[in-house]
C-alpha cells in the first residue's frame, strides 16, 4: 500500500506473490502441492454447474423449490454442495414482476459452493457501486432490459449471507427434463444479470 | 475508470459461463495461499475478509491511484496484512525475498524452470 518508487525499487506483484509463497512454504505454513489441489478444485470442480443443478431441481420439484427458498444452505447441501466459509446461502426467486440482482458492495462475497469463483466484472468497483445506484441501467448495459413495471431488488452480500437468484424457468421448456434444463441455467442468471437461456 | 459496460478487457460484462476467473497465474497463487492457510486454521475467514474489506475501502477512498483497481492485488495486500498481524511473515521479509528473486537471471523467472522445492 505504501510501496512507491520505480520498478527497480518495488518488486512486481507476481514476484511478491512468489516470495510470499516461498516464505510460507519454508515455514511449513503451506504445502504447495496441497495448495495446487485447492486451486484446481476451485478452478475446475466448483463452478456454476453446481448452482445450475440446484436451479434445475427447483424448477422440476416443487417440494425442493419450497425447501430451497426456505433454507437455501440446507437445500443446497441436500445435493452435496456446501460452503468453505460457513456462510448462509439465501435463495431469492425472480418472477415476472420482481427481479433480484446480487452484488457485494463491501468486497466481493459470492456463493462459491454453487457458483465457483466470481467473474472479474463482479469484483469491479464500477459494478459494485453502480448496480446499487442505477440497477436498471447497469442491467440494460449488460444486455438485460427489464420493463419499467418490473421491480428490481438489489441484494447486497455480507460475510454472513450470500445470495443466489432462482431465475424464472424459461417459457417453452415444459417438456424438458431436469438434466436437460441444467445447461440453460447460466451463472449470470443466478447472479441476476441475465435470464436463464432458452433452448 | 472502467465501467461494467466494457465489451472486453478484465471488466467486461458476462457473456458466457466460461470466463476465466484468474487473469494471471500469480492471482491464482494469491487466491490459493489465502484459502490454504484458512483451511489449515492459520486464520479465520472473517479475519481475512475484514483485512480485504479494509484494503478495498482504502483503495476506494484514496483520491489518486497509481494504478487501476486490481482485486487480487488488494487480496494479496490483505493476506500480507493478516500474516504480519500474526507475526508469521512481515512485509519487509516479503520485499527482501522478492528483491532477491528479481536478481535471478531472466530465464529463472519462469516458475516451471525453478526447482519445485
From TrEMBL, chain B:
Residues 17-106 form the Nitrile hydratase beta subunit-like N-terminal domain. It comes from the Bacteria. Pfam families: NHase_beta_N. InterPro entries: CN_hydtase_beta-like_N, CN_hydtase_beta_C, Elect_transpt_acc-like_dom_sf, Nitrile_Hydratase_acc_put. This is Nitrile hydratase accessory protein.
